[in-house]
Amino acid sequence: MSVGAEQRSLFVPDGLAGERVDAAIARMFGLSRTRAADLIAQGLVQLDGETVGKSDRVLPGATLEVTIPSLVDPLEVVPEIVEGIKIIHDDDSIVVIDKPVGVAVHPSPGWSGPTVVGHLAGAGFRIATSGASERQGIVQRLDVGTSGVMVICKSEHAYSVLKNAFRHRTVDKTYHALVQGHPDPLEGTIDAPIGRHPKADYKFAVMADGRHSVTHYETLEAHRFASLLEVHLETGRTHQIRVHMSALKHPCVGDLTYGADPKLARRVGLERQWLHAVRLGFEHPDSGEYVSYESTYPDDLASALEVIRGAV
């Protein structure tokens, strides 16, 4: 990904007479041979006004013009205010937010959209420096397509305490999921290991050699086409609820990645999985007092639920 470009022009010195163009560029502009060859291949190099091939030779006194796009690190945190992120709680140690759908928690290769850490930087929040540079202060994650409450650490002490709490499963993570059909039994525990899907690296699946994963659920409402569940996560694997419900043959409504019915998704107007982080409870890293934060359903999920409730 590149933003902007630098135009540079130099005369070929006598000492480089007869050199290949890619080698001359590497020496004159301080670039690697690979980068020089890449610029030539993109048509960004001219010798006396003519485009060149990487194996062409240079003559002394010739004008070498190079356009060098400025590279942007895909993991760089870009400060920007992201519409829809709500601050639920803020103190010296933590900030608790309500994350909307379509926002990633932190930058990653292949993701060029908005991020939570980018928003916090843009809004002037100072967050903990512990963790990888693009994930500083992050002790939990929500999928891009999952909305709801999450906590980010502002102090190093809070990061240490809460990272430990998540690791030792003392954080109460409560989700609501609208799933197709009616799970039997109406409440239960899914204990099934999760690993990366053998045929699609963007998905996960119940795998014999996967990581230990435990999901507790209970049915809050049962309707004709779908059931509203309250889900408590004992472990925190990527896509855990989505994978476990799909394995039970009751995928989240709208979750086409994990086998949801596209007709039902269209009927209720959903373009993502019906899954929302409604509550987060933990001991505050400073006071030790138990705190709990909540998030209401966003409009798309609330609207889809009303369609399901009204279905006869």
From TrEMBL:
NCBIfam families: rluA_subfam. SMART domains: S4 (SM00363). Belongs to the pseudouridine synthase RluA family. This is Pseudouridine synthase. Its EC number is 5.4.99.-. Keywords: Isomerase, RNA-binding. Pfam families: PseudoU_synth_2 (PF00849), S4 (PF01479). Responsible for synthesis of pseudouridine from uracil. It catalyses: a uridine in RNA = a pseudouridine in RNA. The lineage of its organism: Bacteria, Bacillati, Actinomycetota, Actinomycetes, Propionibacteriales. It comes from the Bacteria. PANTHER family: MITOCHONDRIAL RNA PSEUDOURIDINE SYNTHASE, RIBOSOMAL LARGE SUBUNIT PSEUDOURIDINE SYNTHASE D.
